[in-house]
Amino acid sequence: MTTLLTSQNHDSHDTGMTYIYPVVSRRARGVSVGINLNPNNACNWRCIYCQVPDLTRGSAPPIDLAQLEEELRRLLDAIVRGNFMQERVPEHARSLEGLAFSGNGESTASAEFGAAVAVVERVLQEFDLLGRLPVRLITNGSLIDRVPDALRHLARINGEIWFKLDAASTDGIARINDVRLSPQGVLERLRLCAKLCPTWAQTCMFALDGEPPPETELTAWLDMLAQVKNDLKGVHLYGLARPSLQPEAPRLTRLPQSWLDDLARRVEQMGLRVQVSA
Ligand code: SF4
Q1: 202: which of 2, 76, 125, 236 fits an S-S bond (Cβ 3.0–4.6 Å)?
Q2: What is the distance in A from the centroid of ligand 1 to the CA of 126?
Q3: Domain CATH code at residue 73
Q4: Which of 82, 8, 67, 57 is nearest to 36 (CA)?
């Protein structure tokens, strides 16, 4: 049975592929082609809102680059030259919006991440799409300093990085991302990332046990953004899009749009661009 794609429905098994999946972008602007270098559902973080099923702590497995290339070529062919849009995509979203390294884990943990960027460049060139579509990397940012060459390469192919910044205190990061990191280290990686490739901060905000993030946490987050505001393209501020698949799921609830809008205004007041998705 053929099902229409929605922003809730982007399982790679849907297409029978391992590394490549199509998704209607959350704002339904069009179709994004996702690249999953973590088919083993392993990440070095464990965010309590994470929507990866059976998430385990770990690294990415070896990637079959030939298979990745063949899958990307096959899906792009179906989208650009075939009937994929007519058969699978709601009418209002029938445009190809971009590609995204957005895996079931941290993409930059893959030893083949740099080679995968080269695959994307080659295949986009074949379809005469190189430079005409954004190639995004959705990352928790923790391994950025290990892949500087790949990030420079990404910048050369119209790349853009969305760097996860859910909290900016040691306790806040531990509570939400289940890792112990120094805020200073996060700040340094964020600055480095923005130097290597155009970078947005991406933040997920939600209520935990019925309470929104405390003002002390919001102040720490705003302070960190203030320190990088001249380096960033802006901030993507998200609410909970889909239910968490982690044990904490029953403790998490969505915040009202008005709460997110109020926080966005505080970010805008420091001169940063904000895009809100409730
Ligand atoms: S960094 Fe991403 S994949 Fe990893 S646990 Fe957090 S939300 Fe899940």
Answers
A1: 236
A2: 32
A3: 3.20.20.70
A4: 67
Q: Determine, yes or no, domain membership for 7.
A: no
Predicted confidence pLDDT, tens digits, the chain (278 residues): 445 665 555 544 467 899 999 998 766 579 999 999 999 999 999 999 999 999 999 999 999 999 999 999 999 999 999 999 999 999 989 999 999 999 999 999 999 999 999 999 999 999 999 999 999 999 999 999 999 999 999 999 999 999 999 999 999 999 999 999 999 999 999 999 999 999 999 999 999 999 999 999 999 999 999 999 999 999 999 999 889 999 999 999 999 999 999 999 999 999 999 999 97
Which residue type is seen at 1? M
Q: Which H or E run includes 176?
A: helix 170-177
The residue whose CA is least distant from atom 5 of ligand 1 is 46
Q: What is the helix (H) or strand (E) element at residue 23, kind and residue range?
A: strand 20-24
- List, chain by chain if needed, residues with CB within 6 Å of any ligand 1 atom: 43, 45-47, 50, 52, 55, 105-106, 140, 164
Structural domain contains residue 211: yes
- Report the relative pairing of strands 135-139 and 96-101 from DSSP bridges: parallel
Q: How many domains does the chain have?
A: 1
Q: Would residue 82 count as lying in a domain?
A: yes
How far is it, in rounded angstroms, from Cα 150 to Cα 155?
A: 9
- Nearest-atom number in ligand 1 for the CA of 140 is 1
- Assess if residue 4 is contained within a domain: no
User: Which amino acid makes up residue 36?
Assistant: N
> Which residue's CA lies nearest to atom 8 of ligand 1?
50
Nearest CA to ligand 1 atom 2: 105
Which numbered atom of ligand 1 lies nearest the CA of 52? 8
Give the nearest ligand 1 atom to 139 CA: 1
